[in-house]
Design goal:
Elements lengths: L5 E6 L3 E7 L5 E8 L6 H15 L5 E6 L2 E3 L4 E4 L9 E2 H8 L5 E5 H12 L7 E7 L3 E7 L2 E2 L30 H4 L1 H8 L5 H9 L3 H25 L3 E5 L10 H11 L6 E3 L6 H11 L3
Parallel strand pairs: 1-4, 4-8, 9-12, 12-13
Antiparallel strand pairs: 1-2, 2-3, 5-6, 6-7, 9-10, 10-11
Helix pairs in contact: 1-2, 3-9, 5-7, 6-7, 7-8
């Protein structure tokens, strides 16, 4: 690793979290910026560069995680349902220019989260593991012997595998994708379509039968998709992250039952700590691994 600091940025649909990884490996939050649906990528990237340069005029490298289809080799975001103005943005080229030429590495937000998990030692560096984020959508990463697997570029888009032919319409333009059945909106649809997942969880914990049933249905769809993945890839186990991983206990039983009824692979599932800086930390870890 260079003697200079690496930075990490996590760009999501409403905010961009920016932080620095110090030479001793500790991570400090620097700022949280608004990304909003109307903000142009150039403006946001310029603001990010200003935050970094204010305390570090010459960063060693910057890692960026962003929700969407990313070509890590080119630092190019081709499609992001949550950041429509960013479709077709050369993030690494633009941000590097605002940073006076510092190297910038870009990857999918779920991949950088997984890199952070590897860096901390939460995800083992041996064997094949699958990481799944459960939030607005479903993100995925395939980790093989401590490295991410990209296939021809975008491996791990688990959320968009078809789980029901002709099913619910997805933000990707197709029907029946897994994330329409096992992400945030799906859980809400199993309840009353209006109540936020946090509130449904609170009610389920208090014994509300309808809320418990919503989580049971959610768990069944989750377990069904995980069984498909296990049959294809036979991983040693799964790690879960994202907002809905926080209420894993509420759907674990049904997810496991569904999974075990569909595949012979052992149910080995752990939840990774999901903090507001986990993505930016992973992005900084990715940058530090490359310089
Ligand atoms: Zn889809």
């Amino acid at each position: 690793m260079s003697s200079r600091n690496c930075w990490g940025v996590d760009i999501g649909g409403s905010t961009a979290v920016v932080g620095r990884m110090d030479r001793d490996g500790s991570f400090r939050l620097a700022d949280v910026l608004d990304t909003g649906p109307c903000r142009q990528p150039g403006d946001v990237l310029k603001s990010i560069a200003e935050v970094i340069r204010r305390s570090d005029p010459s960063p060693a490298a910057v890692g960026v995680g962003v929700a969407g289809l990313v070509d890590p080799g080119r630092g190019f975001l081709s499609f992001s349902p949550n950041l429509p103005l960013w479709n077709g943005t050369h993030i690494s080229t633009m941000l590097s220019r605002f940073l006076g030429g510092a190297p910038v590495f870009v990857d999918n937000d779920c991949n950088v989260f997984a890199i952070g998990g590897l860096h901390r030692g939460d995800i083992p560096a041996e064997g094949l593991w699958l990481f799944i984020t459960l939030g607005t959508g479903i993100g995925g990463a395939i980790i093989s012997d401590g490295r991410l697997t990209y296939g021809t570029g975008t491996a791990g888009e688990f959320g968009h595998m078809t789980i029901r032919e002709g099913g619910r319409m997805c933000t990707c333009g197709l029907r029946g994708c897994w994330e329409r059945y096992a992400a945030r909106e799906a859980l809400m649809s199993y309840y009353d379509r209006r109540t936020e997942p946090k509130m449904i969880a609170t009610r389920a914990r208090k014994g509300d039968a309808k809320a418990i049933a919503a989580f049971s249905e959610y768990g069944r769809w989750l377990g069904r998709g995980m069984a498909n993945l296990a049959k294809c890839l036979a991983p040693r186990g799964f790690f879960l992250g994202g907002g809905l991983s926080g209420c894993y206990r509420l759907y674990r039983k049904h997810a496991r039952q569904e999974y075990e009824s569909r595949c012979p692979n052992a149910w080995n599932v752990s939840v990774l700590d999901d903090t507001s800086t986990a993505g930016a930390f992973g992005a900084a870890a990715m940058a530090s691994g490359k310089c």
